[in-house]
Amino acid sequence: MKNYIILGLLLCFFSCEEQMVVIPDIPIPATDRIVLVEEMTGVDCPNCPKGSAILNSLIAEFEGRVIGVGIHGDLLTKPISSSLYDFRTTHSQQIEQSFGIFAKPCAVINRTQFPDQGELEIYGEDTWRNYVQSELESEPKVDLTVTASLDEDTRTANISVNVTGREALTENLKISIVITEGNIVDAQKDQSEIIEEYNHKHVLRTMLTNWDGDNLSQGINVAQTLTKEYTFVVPEEDGLWKLADLDIVAFVTDPDGVLQAAEVHLKE
Amino acid sequence: MIFKQCIAVLAFCLCFTMGTIAQETGRFSGGFQSQANFFLRDSLIGAAGIPQYDRQLFGAQSWLDLKYSYDGFDLGVRFDQFNNSNLRNPNFSFTDQGIGRWFISKKIEKFGFTVGHIYDQIGSGIIYRAFEERPLFIDNALYGARVTFDFNDDWQAKAFTGRQKLIFDAYESVIKGAAIEGYHNFEEAGVTVAPGIGVVSRTLDDQTMENVIGVLTGYLDSARVKPVHNVYVGSVYNTLNAGKFVWYAEAAVKSSDLYNDPTAERVIFGGETVTGSFVKRPGSVLYSSISYAANGLGITLEGKRTEAFNLRADPTLQLNLGIINFLPPMNRQNTYRLTTRYSPATQDLSEMAFQADVRYAINRKTSILVNASNITDLDGELLFREFFTEFNYKYKRDWQIKTGFQIQTYNQEVYEVKPEVPLVETVVPYVDFLYRFTRKKSLRTEIQYMFIGDDGNTKQDYGDWLFAQLEYNLVPGWSFVVSDMFNANPGKNSPVDTKTGEKLSLHYPRFDVFYTHASNRFGLSYVKQVEGVVCTGGICRLEPAFSGVQFTISSVF
């Protein structure tokens, strides 16, 4: 009996060698889906530059198919000693609090809770790509276009969004409009140093809607188009609100997440 | 699903209970533990900005354990409840409840069978440890089955398989393991040995592997590694007891496996270089301790070398999630408030650690203790160093004094990922004085002061601290504790007065009342607590500041 037990235990661990895993080159899905990645970040967060770099690489790899928004909410966002600016806004704090994050960096992708995740936010920036790829595989349920015109003299922007149904939907739809700014050079903590001239990209600067969106309609029919107009006067602030570096991000949500996103430069 | 399992277990218990009425009786045992937090917002110390402080105001967590034993059967079930709890995530609110554990165990002659949620370990835990650590929200039970076989009274084999528990669910990867452990007494030589050998394997499920492949698909060719479904770890260990000496040694190896190395660099799409990358390497741990005890003298020497021994249910998991094994800490497990402020978390990728502990009882009244530890990474970078002393004197039954000091060097940059901070250096003298007025009334006083290093003009971290505590015990039952942790000389990270810009010297008071009746303990506390690292056995996490009232119940029956 003893020998059988010992032999059995050994067999458990020295069975056949496994077949080596092959890492395929997965093509970018040929759909019209555009994915929103909300990156929870902060200037006092030493691991966040890597998260931002990963987001930038996703934007570069899936060119035109991924939109990034940097949310500087509560956690690790207080300006550090050499900071020039404070990126925290009421909207970013409300968004971050609604997700309930406990570490950074993390990302919320299309505001969708994926089956293998306990929360909306996804920790482990190396895994973000999986969820982006997964979201890109499905066609959007609505089409979304956003256009912007800017009067540079008055710094007034007129923004128009059109949402057209691809499928008949009955859920409550909301529209969110975010103004992001890139090329903000300011201090950022890194793992072993403070980067004094870090290039902060796609920072959420304000929203023209509520933090969780404005009501658009109760459902939508196929080919039905809904339009919303917004006007925004760009503030003047030394080093910030640079017209050439502002983008307008729009996205439509239903209770399960983002249906489609779109982005345009404020100043073409 | 879980609910059905619970009903089944309870029904099973009930059947046994009814069946025992006419025969011998079984035995019920269990325990109840609960902690309720009433959150009082204090933005000055950072106790704000989470739902509990802003709107929920209350949170609680409770556990009820029930165990039943009868005729070789052991059955158990545990109900876990989290209501607006900050335990899982100190910065957010978690609400859920359900069966946190159930198990059925039966001994049949030389075989033992257990199914359900199983806590167990092999050797010192280096290759496998399934355990629960409630203050850190760790519950790594194996949800599966285990078989044991007793060759004789001294030798036993065991094998198990299952999945690691994840709150009220389980990770998808499969863990299996086996071990043979024994004991032999060489009577003529006066030597006993307790050798063992263990192996554990983790097999990734297809979904997890797809996620891993998805991650690696995003890597450029220069950084890509080929993942494996199966990782194997094995260890041999032995405890040798020879008269006044006890020697434990364990050597563990891990097959080449994928893990996230936060120090590895790679180039990403777009040309930027990032730090932190999945790599694939084999790992190892060597651990040994030797103790000598005789004539009032006790000496323990320990050493551990760790290389690439990250073992998780899923290689993409981080923090304290999905850890399959346990690496023993190599620093003194302190208890005083200020001596525990900077504690090192065990490093699983690169660590070389030594510890020496010497205790000597000069006579029945007087004893001394000296402990020293030194932890570096494998490149020699200092991570942690501690020198701790304790002098203990008892005067009859009237009073007792413990006093000593601690000198520490703590690599905050590594342990707390804080860039550009120098090694934190502290000196903490302390006095612990216990005076018994009568057999039933006593007063214990603790005073500690932390002197911290400075970076030119500014004190490191939060600066110097003074801690004082009075504890009045009234036997039986009552205990009253008053303490204050005072930021006597504020440092770089201390809160700032928004009007004057001056660093604030804040008080962090605490008041506790404890009442013990039989095996029930109740506590009511007002707590204001500074942000800090909380560690248990080398596993640590950063805890934010706390402000509020806590009510605790702990009961065993």
Explain what the structure shows.
The complex is a heterodimer of chains A (268) and B (557). Chain A has 268 residues and is of the alpha+beta class. Chain A has a domain at 30-140 and 175-212 and 237-261: Glutaredoxin. Helix content of chain A is 17%, strand content 39%. In chain A, strands 7, 10, 11, 13 and 14 form a five-stranded antiparallel sheet that branches. A four-stranded mixed sheet of chain A has the order 2-1-3-4. In chain A, strand 13 (246-254) and strand 14 form a beta hairpin. The mean pLDDT of chain A is 90. Chain B is globular, with a radius of gyration of 26 Å. Mean pLDDT of chain B is 90; it is low at 16-22. Chain B has 557 residues and is mainly beta. Chain B contains four helices and 34 strands. Chains A and B meet through helix 1, helix 2 and helix 4 of A and strand 13, helix 3 and strand 18 of B.
Gist of the model:
The complex is a heterodimer of chains A (268) and B (557). Chain A is α+β, with helices and mostly antiparallel strands and 268 residues long. Helix content of chain A is 17%, strand content 39%.
